[in-house]
Amino acid sequence: MDLGIAGRTALVAASTGGLGLAVARALAAEGAKVAVVGRRGDRAKEIVGELQDSNAGIPGFEAVAIEADLTTPEGIDAAVEQAVADLGPIDILVLNGPGPRPGAAAALSAEDMAAAFDLLVKPHHALVNRVLPGMRERRWGRILAIGSSGVTAPLPNLAISNTGRAALAGYLKTLAAEVALDGVTVNLLLPGRIATDRVTQLDQAAAKRRATTLEEIQLESRRTIPARRYGEPAEFGAAAAFLCGAPASYITGVALRCDGGLVRSL
Asked: pTM for the whole thing?
């Protein structure tokens, strides 16, 4: 299937590793021009080199490395300005960022509640505000947030994440209805247990908390997934690329799970 995004400019937040990197790779393979953004500038440059090598046969393919802290207004401004200067107006915005620390809901402080909003809502809102006017003017745009299955089924011991990601989902669902007539889609892609460093860290934390081994935690986790395995980052990236593509123009305001059947509701 031709996703129709060759030559489109994509800014992928927090794409120097994990799911952000998987999405950047998938978009690049479809011919999109990709801005790889993260706080690790050297790693961003390495990834750009990898993308250029693996997609050398795609006419006009471009990628740029941008070192920026997207949790700050200054970092957001700098990243967007550089991406536009180097690659052109942003057609595809992939919202992503680091996950907050684990913790129980009963133990949350007022500072933790504020952090949930500051980390998981405010930066994404600021990025959307920077690129949405241009998308609406050109009457084409894709905004995709990498979320968590905790949006539909809150995850144990991830109270900060559950709180902030649910707030972001509410904002994006509302936005989707407001901009649909302008040719802009707004969706969320919710990972379950995808084999990334972040998931390994969470499994290690669970192993420590329960005084058991990482391997035992992973075995137990796989047993809860109907597919009986963790997902591959490339599988997640492929789903993201589709939602960012032209054939998905009638899909908006949706939270799609990529979780191997982990969440049992429809």
From this structure: 0.95
